[in-house]
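User: My advisor, Dr. K., asked me to get a structural model of this assembly before our group meeting. I'm new to this, so sorry if the format is off. These are the inputs:
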Amino acid sequence: MASFSTRAIVAAGLIVAAPLSIIAATLFGSVVIEADNWAAALVGRADATTVEIVWRLRIPRAGAAFVTGAMLALAGVLLQNLLRNPLADPYVLGLSGGASVGAMLGMLTGLSAWSLHLAALAGAAVIACALVAFAARATGWDIHRVLLVGVGLASACGALVSLLLTLAPTAQLPGLLYWLIGDLAGATLHWSTIPALFAAVFVASAIAADLDALALGPDQARLLGVAVGRTQTIAFSIAAVATVSAVLIGGAIGFVGLAVPHLLRLLGVHAHRWLVPLAALAGGTLVTLADTVARSAAAPIEIPVGIATALLGVPVLLWLVARTR
Amino acid sequence: MTLSTSDLTIQVTGRTLLERATLSFESGQLWAVLGRNGAGKTLLLRTLAGLRKPDEGLVAIDGTPVATIAARARARRLALLLQDDTADYWGSVREYVTLARLPYRNGMRSHLAYTTNDSHTGTVEQVLSLLELGGLAERAFRTLSGGERQRARLAQVLAQDTPCILLDEPLNHLDLAHQALTLRVLSRLARAGRTIVCTVHDPLRALPHCSHALLMYDSGHFQQGPIAQVVTRKSLDTLYGCAVEGPIPKP
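Assistant: The format is fine. Below is the predicted structure of the whole assembly, which you can bring to the meeting.
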């Protein structure tokens, strides 16, 4: 069992690591900025190029990376709980697939960049409505149906994506592929996503005790006085919004939503009042660090961040699994 | 507290398992629900607990229909040990048992920190000690053996501290010593005024500790009442469809 102090150490470590990851993201990249120059740039006293790099490029991108990672990890925590399936991740139910199909259809029909986001949201909304129609019951969600319908819809979206890629003009392929691989190149932070992230973490924390009970199964949760249907609907809504927000910012970045909740559980963090906020911090930190490595390791070439998250995260996950065997 | 049914009918896939049963489980009584596999014992407990709607009839707690009682209020009056255990819980045994205090949380702070309330921790420690789980309290729930897990699950139900306790096969996976301990604890709780209804597969072992029995026969027929009146060699032979060996226990 993880003692209170173990969880406190993990929490303290993440509270320190999160801002450090953002600082590192603004220091490193294809150009490494010296510490004094960086400090001057922060207050606008460095040369124009450095100020531009720090304020216009790296801070928005670090923010985008952090918010994306936090949203994905939060969605992972909620979906693994809702579906009672350790392999659940933000992409399992086809929401990101729906967003990709929506965005790709928008691109092929010549929509503006702003409208593309709406098209992606519409795609995800279609999937969410289908899940509600098939799996919501008066007494709560039928999790087997959610999983079955979600996996089916995700496969259908995958097929549609392949079809669109086959039919699309060659010149449009790079833009289309953006939606399919996790990539923060060119991603910028929509500042509205920061309060959205805080709101998502706050609401999920507010139902933390209900989520603890739900981990025992819907019947057991019901017997413990939890309004199961309401809790499932709130958790699913947060997970859906978080997934779609993350996909809109950074595409489908893998590994984070699946593995960050497990990493924390292996470190002894399982009660949702701890797991929810710490997963957001850990996911944000992991993606921010991974993006910094992805930008710096083979500069000027940028490795897609999804590759870096997996390469950084998998060894840590394997080490923890081996340690707790 | 009285848990009662009126004209309760339970059906599954066209089969009637219980027909128009009017039952009354009173405070201080320890009921054994007996029947063959598939007789509907589990469905009865799930219906009594409000997890399943009656096909006909009504279940009530002190006269109030179970279906109309809010979830949390119901969880303060009635607990059920489910037969299936599919939980893959990551915390310790103590944390697992403490989840039983969820129905008593009140307000946001309590909602987030229900594990640190003194009265809750006191109840949890009492139950852990009652079921001799003190030594396992810090163990991770997922590392427990089947029997240990069953004791932890039983502890969670008792820590819910409800006047009515329903138990579906509470002796499953338990060794002889812990079967005896569990039956003693249940007997003591009933004498202290709780209403306890449990399904059992080994009547010869459980009946000496019980005050009443409900025998669920085929086709929805049933027999209920004090053990001395309803449990006879003939009724058990008919119930199980075989000759029951050994002396018929009396309370």
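One thing worth pointing out at the meeting: The CA atoms of residues 298 and 325 of chain A lie 36 Å apart.

User: Perfect, thanks a lot.
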